[in-house]
Amino acid sequence: NVTGMSVRGENSPKRAAPLHSNHAALKLQETVFNLSSEKEQQEAIEHIDEVQNEIDRLNEQASEEILKVEQKYNKLRQPFFQKRSELIAKIPNFWVTTFVNHPQVSALLGEEDEEALHYLTRVEVTEFEDIKSGYRIDFYFDENPYFENKILSKEFHLNESGDPSSKSTEIKWKAGKDLTKRASQTPNKAGKKRQHEEPESFFTWFTDHSDAGADELGEVVKDDIWPNPLQYYLVPDMDDEEGEGDDDDDDEEGLEDIDEEGDEDEGEEDDEEDGEVTPIKHFFPLL
């Protein structure tokens, strides 16, 4: 009996492991994998940060070297700016034409502003020696009926903490000529360059120091106009181009009329060819 019991025990099926123990094992493996993955990710992030620090260091080094190069070439450009100013002085109304032809500056000009800018003879942009701390824009005027100043200037500064500021010349307006105090300006009689309502006076820019860090006009003059003002002086008059376009249209219409007349003549000739031949006696009298 004992032997039989032993045999039956050996031949009896083994009991399966509980399902909850298998699930626990899988959960443990998943936890270990996640911990390993998180560790690898953290190590990767730390290495990325180290590499990024090296990139930032190189960027700072590059900025310093670029600044030195810019300072060098800024000095080399000065004689050419001076020569260019001397040549521009030989062209009447060069600067007012340049400003009127510039889309952003033109939008800031009223009719009387444009008249006052006819007395503008010279514009100069001077970057401070270290360049990064700011710049100054000088406007030189002939004697004019609007203000006493010969030079109007506006400076932009960036202090060590990076805070921007600006200051400008106080305009000494002649009696009754303060363009910044005129509530409404006369309509633009010409109406050619600007098809919009008259803006505030261009000269309010000299008194506006509310946002020196985002002075659009100053940036446009320094970075867009000053490097090459000739490109805006030479902008063709759009009205003239439109007029030429109208002439071209007229010419085309004339050519179309001629073509139509030609087609009609050809049609008549075809009709004659299709009909009977006209007897000769119709042209020559009988003898």
Automatic annotation (TrEMBL):
<feature type="region of interest" description="Disordered">
    <location>
        <begin position="235"/>
        <end position="287"/>
    </location>
</feature>
<dbReference type="InterPro" id="IPR037231">
    <property type="entry name" value="NAP-like_sf"/>
</dbReference>
<dbReference type="GO" id="GO:0005737">
    <property type="term" value="C:cytoplasm"/>
</dbReference>
<keyword id="KW-0963">Cytoplasm</keyword>
<comment type="similarity">
    <text>Belongs to the nucleosome assembly protein (NAP) family.</text>
</comment>
<dbReference type="GO" id="GO:0006334">
    <property type="term" value="P:nucleosome assembly"/>
</dbReference>
<feature type="compositionally biased region" description="Acidic residues">
    <location>
        <begin position="237"/>
        <end position="276"/>
    </location>
</feature>
<dbReference type="GO" id="GO:0005634">
    <property type="term" value="C:nucleus"/>
</dbReference>
<dbReference type="Pfam" id="PF00956">
    <property type="entry name" value="NAP"/>
</dbReference>
<keyword id="KW-0175">Coiled coil</keyword>
<feature type="region of interest" description="Disordered">
    <location>
        <begin position="158"/>
        <end position="199"/>
    </location>
</feature>
<feature type="compositionally biased region" description="Basic and acidic residues">
    <location>
        <begin position="169"/>
        <end position="181"/>
    </location>
</feature>
<dbReference type="InterPro" id="IPR002164">
    <property type="entry name" value="NAP_family"/>
</dbReference>
<feature type="coiled-coil region">
    <location>
        <begin position="41"/>
        <end position="75"/>
    </location>
</feature>
<keyword id="KW-0539">Nucleus</keyword>
<protein>
    <submittedName>
        <fullName>SET nuclear proto-oncogene b</fullName>
    </submittedName>
</protein>
